[in-house]
UniProtKB/TrEMBL annotation:
InterPro entries cross-referenced by the UniProt entry: PHA_DNA-bd_N, PHA_reg_PhaR, PHB_accumulat
Annotated GO biological process: regulation of DNA-templated transcription
Domain of life: Bacteria
Residue intervals of the PHA accumulation regulator DNA-binding N-terminal domain: 7-66
Domain PHB accumulation regulatory: 71-110, 125-162
Protein name in the entry: Polyhydroxyalkanoate synthesis repressor PhaR
Length: 188
């Protein structure tokens, strides 16, 4: 059963209005809603256009400018290079799945921390912070290996699809274009 999304209206003066609380909110408040896993939709108050993605991208842009960015120059340039490419449509679901797996890993680590240290959030997060300082390279290596395996599986799937397509169309005879192409037809 789908739950209704919380509607936030963005007015021409750039103010955000939360229809659930009947009050104006800030971009920071929208970020908090996202962190609380509240399903939301931001609409332009005048046109009713869904502008959720642009508001979320604005939050990411602000986060990237506040201290330690998550996306390196290389990652951002790779994102840009994927636009307009044949594989663009597959990039979003690929990233989504990998972020889902990463989130599951993070949740497991939090559960383990809670099991060891109880519900003391400071103790657990401080210990995980220290742990990550030392184990960060190992975790990155593990994630890198996972990405390499994912890439290998994706390329294997792509090759199998190409082979199946060749086999599917092998029984059909397609007309071959004239040797000279369109120009030779015009010369006649």
């Amino acid at each position: 059963m789908d739950t209704e999304k919380r509607v936030i209206k963005k007015y021409p003066n750039r103010r955000l209005y939360d229809t659930a609380t009947s009050s104006y909110i800030t971009l920071e408040d929208v970020k908090k809603l996202v962190l609380e896993n509240v399903e939301l939709q931001v609409v332009d108050a005048k046109t009713q256009e869904d502008i959720t993605r642009s508001v979320l991208l604005q939050i990411i842009l602000e986060e990237e400018g506040n201290g330690s960015p998550m996306f390196s120059y290389e990652v951002l340039t790779q994102f840009i290079r994927f636009y307009g490419q044949a594989m663009q449509g597959m990039m979003g679901p690929f990233l989504e799945k990998n972020l889902e797996i990463f989130g599951q890993l993070q949740k497991k680590m939090q559960e383990q921390s809670r099991a060891l240290y109880g519900d003391n959030p400071n103790l657990g997060s401080n210990l995980w912070g220290e742990y990550m300082k030392f184990q960060g390279p190992a975790m990155q290596n593990m994630m890198s290996n996972y990405m390499e395996q994912s890439t290998g599986m994706f390329l294997d799937m792509q090759n199998r699809m190409q082979e199946q397509t060749k086999q599917l169309f092998a029984g059909f005879s397609f007309p071959t274009p004239p040797a000279g192409g369109k120009d030779s037809d015009e010369k006649r």
